[in-house]
Design goal:
Layout: E1 9-15, E2 21-31, E3 34-39, H1 44-53, E4 69-75, H2 79-90, E5 96-99, E6 107-113, H3 114-125, H4 136-144, H5 165-168, H6 179-188, E7 193-200, E8 212-215, E9 218-227, E10 230-236, E11 243-247, E12 250-255
Antiparallel strand pairs: 1-2, 2-3, 4-6, 5-6, 7-10, 7-12, 8-9, 8-11, 9-10, 11-12
Length: 260
Amino acid sequence: MESVAPGYSAPALLLDPRGRLEVATRFWRRGPDEAWLVCDPGDAGRLAARLEGYRIRVDVRIDDRSATWGAIAVRGRSAPGLRPVAEAAVAGSGGGTTAHGWPGVPGFDVVAPLAGLAGAAAALEERAVEVGDDTGYEELRIRCGVPRSGAELDRSTFPQEAFLDVDAVSFDKGCFVGQEVVGRIHARGHVNRYLRHLRPAEPHVRLAPGAEVVVGATAVGAVTSSTTGLALGYVRREVEPPAGAAVAGRPVVIEALPAR
């Protein structure tokens, strides 16, 4: 955490002793003695409670502000130009913005008290196109191969399965909860499944989340998120992409995710 300068952020994970994911978050240093942890909706309470349990003889205060604060994720080519708009809208509220892009796509997050966040949303709406979960934002997330809590990420997920180890795990920083398992996988092991793109042969098809991915007569995985013409899903490691498969009887191609 000391390597993250004030105003900047980095992905981070809270794991359990078995090396499985508790919460995927973003560590955002606000100053020498203050940091924010930004996570998906519904994860804040569990994150704060777990951290409180590790607060032993450490001069730190942990606050769960998810009831009174919120975040807006802005992604897309126009994001760099929109960031000053968001910063001006939350100025004086205690909020701020930090860069947070996806593979090949620039972006930022804006965090503020809910009243200030409403002003930021109004200011952004004048310049940006707001999209719902079933339109552009979710489509872009799937195309970039970004996992989401409640879809690709839950408390059974190993970091390496969703390639979170690429930028959210340090293998030389010292001890952390779950380090033994995650380090052993990194050094001389493997996981049994990986997050993949699933591309239907028919571009108008939208695969159903939860549907099995079948190679030959064997189920090798399942769909986790989908948009028209593309989906995310976990597939057993024995299936090397690109590979042909079927979902609900429709032909698909299993593809590797974009490099993180």
